[in-house]
Design goal:
Strand content: under 5%
CATH topology of the largest domain: Serine Threonine Protein Phosphatase 5, Tetratricopeptide repeat
Helix content: over 70%
Distance between the termini: 81 Å
Structural class: mainly alpha
Shape: elongated
Number of strands: 0
């Protein structure tokens, strides 16, 4: 029985050492750790790491990504739309240039091939910045990702038609009309160079 307190002390010291070691990690290391958890479908640990980033690096230039990615995990992986909306609302409140940050993140996700996440970001832009002059742009980019990247032409048609209904005077309405005409003529966007 005398060894039990020694074991308890040892376990406590090891636990403290491990928790302190994660505090010494750079923001980039923590992002990589969160990504690794996400790739293993360990989404609760990914969220835990994103929260740690926000706590340790609240004023860094990329801390907004932790909040944004946490919202995506809640929305896409954990299917907790209520929590995701809370996170996205905090994002809007905390970052005055949030709309631009969201566009940049969606573009980055598209470049990495994570098209569904990019669409989710564009959809959040439409919800969070519904009165923005850029709403038409977000809507068009959703259609573009569906048509060009996911080859889901039916969804793309729905999105482009919605542009013509909601934003008939926006700069991209003619582009949406053009894309609809291409899809109607079976000359799909990928066929433009032929």
């Amino acid at each position: 029985m005398k060894s039990f307190p020694k074991i308890a002390v040892f376990v406590t010291i090891v636990g403290l050492a491990l928790s302190c070691s994660s505090e010494k990690k750079s923001e980039q290391e923590l992002f990589a750790e969160a990504q690794a958890y996400s790739e293993k479908s360990d989404f609760n640990d990914a969220i835990r790491i994103y929260r740690r980033i926000l706590k340790l690096y609240p004023e860094s230039q990329t801390s907004h990504r932790a909040l944004l990615l946490m919202g995506l995990v809640y929305s896409q992986n954990l299917k907790d739309d209520k929590q995701a909306e809370t996170i996205f609302q905090k994002f809007v409140e905390k970052y005055p240039d949030g709309e631009k940050l969201l566009y940049d993140e969606a573009q980055s996700l598209s470049e990495k091939g994570d098209f569904n996440a990019a669409i989710k970001i564009y959809e959040e832009i439409l919800k969070l910045y519904s009165e923005s002059a850029n709403s038409c742009r977000a809507q068009f980019l959703i259609g573009f990702v569906y048509s060009e990247n996911l080859k889901d032409y039916e969804k793309a048609k729905e999105v482009y038609k919605e542009i013509l209904e909601k934003y008939p005077d926006c700069d991209l309405a003619d582009d949406a009309r053009f894309m609809l005409e291409l899809m109607a003529s079976d000359s799909l966007p990928g066929d433009l160079t032929e």
